[in-house]
Amino acid sequence: MSQARSLFNEDFLRRLEHLNIVTRRPVAGHLRGSHRSRRQGTGMVFADYRPYTPGDDTRNLDWGTYIRLDRLILRLFEEEADLPVYVFVDASASMNHGMPSKFDFARQIGAALGYLALLNYDRVSIVAWSQGIAAELPVRRGRSQVWPMFKFLEGVAPAGGTDLGIALRSYFGARRTRGLVVLISDFLDRGGFTESAQWLSQFRHEVAAIQVLSPEEMAPELPDQVVLVDDETGAAVTLEATPELLEAYRGALSEHCSGIENTCRRFGWSYLTARSDAPFEDLMLTALRREGVLR
Amino acid sequence: MNLVLSAMSAGVAAALLAAVALVVLGIYLLRPPPQRIRVASSLVWERVLASTQGARQRWRWWLSLLLALLIALALALALTDPGTGGGKDSAREVVLVVDDSATMTAWCTDGRTRFEHAVSLAKDRVRGSAWGTRFVVADTMRTTGAGHFVDRDRALRALDALAPVIGGHPRFPALALLPPSDGSREFVFISDGVAPFTIPEHVEKLSVFEQAANVGITSFSVRAQPTDATRYEAFVGLGNAATASVAATVTISGAGHDAVVREVQVPARGFASVVVPVGDFGGGALRASVEAPGDALDVDNTAFAFLPFNRHLRVALVTAGNAPLERALALDPRVRLTVLRPGDYGSRSGFDAYVFDRFAPRLPPPAPALLFAPPHEKWLPDAARVVDAPVVDAWRTGEPLLENVSLADVQIEHAAPFVRTGASVNVLARARDGRALVVASDRAPRWVAAAFSTSDSNFASQASFPVFLANAMGWLTAEVPPRNESVGLLEVPFEHARVEALNAGTIRTHDVPGATLFPVSAPDFVTVETTGSRLRVLVNVLDPATTDVNATSMPGAVRATGTSAAETGVSPTRWWEGLLVLAFVLLVAEWLAYHRRVTV
């Protein structure tokens, strides 16, 4: 994780500390945290009034209302809870391409988001997946878990095909608290993205999809006659790299990305595309804030 | 459409095309395989290919191969020089014989000569032949190589290079005398039919004959009048080829006097002559010309003759008595003879030449001399002892002194042959043992010496003796009679000679061992000079057969008037330029389709 360490320099980490992971809906955390929850308790955010019943905490009585109306009214406050953050990092063989590698870029994103979540005392789970769950870092909470999280990500190596559906089913097949799901992948999944997203949407998680593509994928430079070998399946494709074909490729890739984005928007999820050679700080400090993932 | 390959046979061409196709195919099959590149996923590429290149990619390779094959085959086919059309028949070999003798220069009524018509007809024949036909162009005057068959372009160039030849003897080329056994060769002879050829049956005859009026000079000579040897007259013979009599104008011109003009009526297809006194002209060339209305042939309208400069020679015969020699000298009309006894030699002077009979002065004479059996003197070559009955074995007929002189029947009783003649002495006749019998010296004063006398031989009774005396008098007085030659390529027995013609000016010569060659294409008076020697040559046509331009043996043949290629078949189409253009276009298309890259 030397790259991550060099990336997370003191100044950058200080700037990250001013950011918070946000959710659009109240969270369902069980422990106290800094995120709004649907439960009412001792938080700072006013939620509602209700008539006083014996046994209620008299510290929350609204005495002004009692003087005006001669009725005992109790003020209710939202209880602040922690946020379960599930970071899904694509560890398939296709992520091992690009300069710099898409996988390195993806796990840097995952590490940065996990770092922010741990700073805010959120519960962080890291899942490396390919044709299923390749590796999993169980739930971690608190600042002391930062370096174990980094070490976990450092130990993951990309391999195998891509099947997001199996990974999601494997992980969310067990009962999971509703939270924020961060999907970091190139989404070059032959099984498609829509079906997997449909299945995931039933759990009503907040989802942020970050599609990482390499410069070579976005603007390929090929010789006249070429055989392209799929690194995941081994399938070979022979083609004549004419200008027309390259133009058609760029159109098809754009269509592929648009399809993923449309699916995300349809479910109210966040989506952004990141080039693996793009400045990482811009992504964290600008793009994710623009998408509403960070504040 | 009958495609004919001009540059090679069909079998060779087929082998060439097959080899080219195999090479191209081999190159395609041996091309290095495309580069393999590992990518993250071929998912998007597969979608693209499914919608765009899937099927096209398969025939793209075949199309590229087809284009390469077409380019290579077009280039290879261009090498075979293919073509179509140009004749009703298939390609064959044609032997074209064009008559370029003198009568072919006769003018026709359309302003062109018979020769020009013949060349046009031959060209039409070439252009109208099927593509791939090969030709031999030959002529009756043997000016072309005529050894091998050539394509149509070269045949047309050969026809353009032909020119009529005046003089010489036309001959039908041996190449066209015998046809090949398989009959694949065609023979065409284009002529006016005037020259007397024996033309084989298998030769197709095309005539360019047209009736023409022509009056020409058939003879022209200058000779002394029988009554007065000092007076000369010119004899001009005229021939008329037309079927009507013609009034011709004869003009004699020369140095020292105004031209003399005579009107002569020449009968139809007959001859006439006119005699003109020319004694008042100065010595040298005389030019005779004839003019007649509608005259069709130019080359026979002019002729040259020579009028001697020294018409009176004062000759001293120094002899103890030799009546035959004295009579022979007296018969020469130019000679004014004085007979002296040897003792009287030196008492008189003023002679143009001396004749010494069995006598020689101690010192060279003041004028050129002819000596018979001279005794030994220092200025003469040494004489051997007297031999009996030497036989004249060889004599130099090319020398002016022995021109028209035969020594074959000369019998000699006694002679004292010359020995140690020296480099300046020219041996004219030798005995069988090789010793000199007649010698001459060109050093001034000239002399000619015979090793025998007229009384010891029968030379004086020979018919050629007066000719020898006349030659000797002319040579000794530096007035050698001019040679008479016909128009054409002439040869004189001098090396590195300079040739000047009265009309043509300086003539370019060709040196050969012992002689000089030079062409004369029209009647002229030519002077040939070399170191210490001069020779005059009268070059004339003077041929009644040439003048008679209507004596044709091909009167009924087809008249040659512009038989065009359109009449003989479709104009030939040459393909190789088109094939090169096609190859270029295909090359550009292939480059644009497969090699031009804009984005990568």
Characterise this structure.
- The complex is a heterodimer of chains A (295) and B (600).
- Chain A has 295 residues and is α/β, with parallel strands linked by helices.
- The N terminus of chain A is likely disordered.
- A 6-stranded mixed sheet of chain A has the order 6-5-4-7-8-11, sandwiched between helices. In chain A, strands 1-3-2 form a 3-stranded antiparallel sheet, covered by helices on one side.
- In chain A, 35% of the residues lie in helices and 27% in strands.
- Chain A has 2 domains: 236 residues, Rossmann fold (3-Layer(aba) Sandwich), CATH 3.40.50.410; 46 residues, no CATH class.
- In chain A, helix 6 packs parallel to helix 7.
- Chain A starts with a helix and ends in a 5-residue tail after the last helix.
- The relative contact order of chain A is 0.15.
- Chain B has 600 residues and is α/β, with parallel strands linked by helices.
- Chain B has 5 domains: 102 residues, no CATH class; 141 residues, Rossmann fold (3-Layer(aba) Sandwich), CATH 3.40.50; 100 residues, Sandwich (Immunoglobulin-like), CATH 2.60.40; 164 residues, Class I glutamine amidotransferase (GATase) domain (Rossmann fold); 58 residues, Immunoglobulin-like (Sandwich).
- Chain B has an 8-stranded mixed sheet, with helices on one face. A 5-stranded parallel sheet of chain B has the order 5-4-6-7-35, covered by helices on one side. Chain B has a 5-stranded mixed sheet with strand order 27-34-33-29-30, with no helix packed on it.
- The longest helix of chain B is centred in the first third of the chain and has 24 residues.
- Chain B starts with a strand and ends in a 5-residue tail after the last helix.
